UniProtKB/TrEMBL annotation, chain A:
UniProt GO BP: amino acid catabolic process; fatty acid beta-oxidation using acyl-CoA dehydrogenase
Subunit-level organization: Heterodimer composed of ETFA and ETFB. Identified in a complex that contains ETFA, ETFB and ETFRF1. Interacts with ACADM. Heterodimer of an alpha and a beta subunit.
Function in brief: Heterodimeric electron transfer flavoprotein that accepts electrons from several mitochondrial dehydrogenases, including acyl-CoA dehydrogenases, glutaryl-CoA and sarcosine dehydrogenase. It transfers the electrons to the main mitochondrial respiratory chain via ETF-ubiquinone oxidoreductase. Required for normal mitochondrial fatty acid oxidation and normal amino acid metabolism. ETFB binds an AMP molecule that probably has a purely structural role. The electron transfer flavoprotein serves as a specific electron acceptor for several dehydrogenases, including five acyl-CoA dehydrogenases, glutaryl-CoA and sarcosine dehydrogenase. It transfers the electrons to the main mitochondrial respiratory chain via ETF-ubiquinone oxidoreductase (ETF dehydrogenase).
Name of the protein in its database record: Electron transfer flavoprotein subunit beta
SMART domains per UniProt: ETF
Recorded GO MF terms: electron transfer activity
SUPFAM superfamilies found in the cross-reference section: Adenine nucleotide alpha hydrolases-like
Keyword field contains Transcription: no
Electron transfer flavoprotein alpha/beta-subunit N-terminal domain boundaries: 25-217
Record carries keyword Heme: no
InterPro entries documented for this protein: ET-Flavoprotein_bsu_CS, ETF_a/b_N, ETF_b, ETF_beta_N, Rossmann-like_a/b/a_fold
Protein species of origin: Electrophorus voltai
Lineage: Eukaryota, Metazoa, Chordata, Craniata, Vertebrata
From TrEMBL, chain B:
Domain Acyl-CoA dehydrogenase/oxidase N-terminal span(s) in chain numbering: 45-156
Function as written in the Swiss-Prot or TrEMBL entry: Isobutyryl-CoA dehydrogenase which catalyzes the conversion of 2-methylpropanoyl-CoA to (2E)-2-methylpropenoyl-CoA in the valine catabolic pathway. To a lesser extent, also able to catalyze the oxidation of (2S)-2-methylbutanoyl-CoA.
Keywords for the protein's UniProt record, in alphabetical order: Branched-chain amino acid catabolism, FAD, Flavoprotein, Oxidoreductase, Transit peptide
Protein name as catalogued: Isobutyryl-CoA dehydrogenase, mitochondrial
GO biological process terms held by the UniProt record: branched-chain amino acid catabolic process; lipid metabolic process
Family statement drawn from the similarity comment of this UniProt entry: Belongs to the acyl-CoA dehydrogenase family.
Pfam families listed in its UniProt record: Acyl-CoA_dh_1 (PF00441), Acyl-CoA_dh_M (PF02770), Acyl-CoA_dh_N (PF02771)
Organism of this sequence: Electrophorus electricus
EC number assigned by the record: 1.3.8.5
Length: 254, 421
């Protein structure tokens, strides 16, 4: 039986909030804005907890990287059924430039340290839409990866993953240890129950720094500017096909 | 943020298909960005914010999409309430050893305020159900607690609180329903009026007269549905609170075991009033939640609706009005939460504070919701818009659980005598 599952959870701006760009165009406004767990991370936690309930895994460990506030996100994972949490403290400039490369290095180091045999992540975060962390983590560990999972079945020491790809559904079989990233239809996450929220207070969250794991946090990416998407322009109605063709030629499209 | 757009589009598509018949698209309030001053999570502990978050999510996903449907078709949403009970909302302040969640009064107030943004009527019923479960948990012996509380906490069974009669509302202690002792049975005769859930619920907590006149002659009995001699009047047609049935409860030589009495003979009125302290906080919390929802709906409407070439949000008059509404909301919330704290700490001012908080919050929050309807213009009067349902639903909060008019000035009112000291 698989011992340990590592689940990464990210604290992001809540999906229903109207995003505003900071006046200096260096980023988006995060102060005083409602944050919650990335929806795909919720799906990942739900899947891990279900595996534990089916007794296919022994322990679910929730991990998050960031400042003090990410402990809220870890607590939510604990309230959903994770056994313990790990908070990797990243703050200030390091947090501003935190991206998939650094997180995947941290997750890889933790996976080795915790002797995890399964890592489940959300397929992407809704703030940066990178869709890279799962893949990079697998590469750093030299583990197989099952991304965009809409179904996950553990069969002995192998994992069967049904992936949602552009062409349809692809079923693959992977040898453990393995990295899986969760897609929308993998499951419907549960609500935390009030008793579980209270029990979660007693569950442990370990604190550590990236340095403790020997991870170099320097970013290779520099954000130059953040802008709102261009306003949608009004369209032009045309009367005939000839009109359409001439308008397209005018616009240089054909 | 393509993924966010897809996710929220899928959520909205689900909402669309569920609410298509009723067209109630305009009440997704629970997740908007909220100005810090009216943010309901301000001042709460981390754990309370977690409770609140679950309650808001539940309200947004499981209640708000259906609130119009429940209202217009007078549906008692048993399955949805049972889902809420699974999360721990069936017995919020009941001890965990009989299935409750063991929350404090303040925790419960936060929870009901959040749930009310999804449907004030259903949440108000749930608060009454919770009050009954608490009464049995607090004043019942271990047999009674073990017999009734687990099913009430899971909402396998539903409860009703039976105090009011056709002849006794504000003057509750003059109730006439009699319970004559015959061996090891009480024989009940009389009727109760305006009972929330009456006829559809399973467990009735009934205040009845076992002794002489006045409050000291009243005892509290638990009567189960199906007991011979227990029947119900017609379902009342109400202006609001349509997701919970209201009926008269009639006792004709209804025999109830003495073992079903909570506490001792003569303790019934005291039990009823203690139940109402918490009940008042929770009803007031429902009003606060409804007002919060209405303010957010109004703010959104003001951004969208244009007149005289500008969105309504540019109108100074309307800005002032919205600021007034926000002020009333925060004042109400502070009163209610302070009363909850006083009650859970058993402070000497707890009882008057609960009454004051109920009086203040239910009145102010109705004013807020009514003003919100006004600011929607003609649209506010249409049932496609949620604001009118909040107005209709919380109007009754100013009436029941001790009328606003008698709380501080009427006969038999508790705080007046203390003010005179």
């Amino acid at each position: 039986m698989t011992a340990r599952v590592l689940v990464g959870v990210k604290r992001v701006i809540d999906y229903a909030v109207k995003i505003r760009v900071k006046p200096d165009n260096t980023g988006v406004v995060t102060d005083g804005v409602k944050h919650s767990m990335n929806p795909f991370c919720e799906i990942a936690v739900e899947e891990a907890v279900r595996l534990k309930e089916k007794k296919l895994v022994q322990e679910v460990v929730a991990v998050s990287c960031g400042p003090q506030q990410v402990q809220e996100t870890i607590r939510t994972a604990l309230a959903m059924g994770a056994d313990r949490g790990i908070h990797v403290e990243v703050s200030g400039k390091d947090y501003d430039s935190l991206g998939p490369l650094q997180v995947s290095k941290i997750l890889a180091a933790l996976a080795k340290k915790e002797e995890a045999s399964l890592i489940i992540l959300g397929k992407q975060a809704i703030d940066d839409d990178c869709n890279q962390t799962g893949q990079m983590t697998a590469a750093l560990l030299d583990w197989p990866q099952g991304t965009f999972a809409s179904e996950l079945v553990i069969e002995g020491d192998k994992v069967k993953v049904v992936r949602e790809i552009d062409g349809g559904l692809e079923t693959i079989k992977l040898n453990m240890p393995v990295v899986v990233t969760a897609d929308l239809r993998l499951n419907t996450p549960r609500y935390a129950t009030l008793p579980n929220i209270m029990k979660a207070k007693k569950k442990k969250i370990a604190n550590m720094k990236p340095g403790d794991l020997g991870v170099d946090m320097t970013s290779r990416v520099e954000v130059l500017r953040v802008d709102e998407p261009p306003q949608r322009q009004a369209g032009v109605k045309v009367e005939s096909v000839e009109d359409l063709v001439s308008k397209l030629k005018e616009a240089g499209r054909i | 943020m393509a993924a966010a757009a897809t996710l929220s589009r899928l959520v909205r598509l689900r909402l669309y298909s569920i609410s298509r018949n009723n067209g109630l698209l305009f009440n997704r309030v629970q997740r908007r960005g909220i100005a810090a001053c009216i943010d309901p999570s301000v001042g709460l502990s981390d754990e309370q914010r977690e409770f609140q978050k679950v309650a808001f999510d539940f309200a947004a996903n499981e209640m708000a999409p259906h609130m119009a449907h429940w209202d217009q078709n007078e549906i008692f949403p048993v399955e949805t309430m049972r889902k809420a009970a699974q999360l721990g909302f069936g017995g919020t302040c009941v001890h965990p050893d009989v299935g409750g969640s063991g929350l404090s009064r303040l925790d419960a107030s936060v929870v009901f305020e959040a749930l009310s943004t999804g449907c004030a009527s259903t949440t108000a019923y749930m608060s009454i159900h919770n009050m009954c479960a608490w009464m049995i948990d607090t004043f019942g012996n271990n047999e009674q607690r073990g017999k009734y509380c687990p099913d009430l906490c899971s909402m396998e069974k539903f409860a009703s609180y039976c105090l009011t009669e056709p002849g006794s509302g504000s003057d509750a202690a003059s109730l006439l329903t009699s319970a004559k002792l015959q061996g090891d049975l009480y024989v009940l005769n009389g009727s109760k009026a305006f009972i929330s859930g009456g006829g559809d619920t399973d467990v009735y907590v009934v205040m009845c007269r076992t002794g002489g006149k006045g409050p000291k002659g009243i005892s509290c009995l638990v009567v189960e549905k199906g007991t011979p001699g227990l029947s119900f009047g017609k379902k009342e047609k109400k202006v609001g609170w349509n997701s919970q049935p209201t009926r008269a409860v009639i006792f004709e030589d209804c025999k109830v075991p003495v073992a079903n009495r909570l506490g001792i003979e003569g303790q019934g009125f005291n039990i009823a009033m203690k139940g109402l302290n918490g009940g008042r906080i929770n009803i007031a919390s429902c009003s606060v939640g409804a007002a919060q929802a209405c303010i957010q709906l109004t703010r959104d409407h003001m951004h969208v609706r244009k007149q005289f070439g500008e969105p309504l949000s540019n109108s100074q008059f309307l800005q002032f009005k919205l600021a007034e509404m926000a002020t009333r909301l925060v004042a109400s919330r502070l009163m209610v939460r302070q009363a909850a704290l006083a009650l859970q700490e058993d402070r000497p001012d707890a009882v008057p504070l609960c009454s004051m908080a109920k009086l203040f919050a239910t009145d102010e929050c109705f004013t807020i919701c009514n003003q919100a309807l006004q600011m929607h213009g003609g649209y506010g009067y249409l049932k496609d818009y949620a604001v009118q349902q909040f107005v209709r639903d919380i109007r009754v909060h100013q009436i029941l659980e001790a009328p606003s008019t008698t709380l501080l000035g009427g006969r038999g009112a508790e705080p007046v005598s203390r003010l005179q000291e």
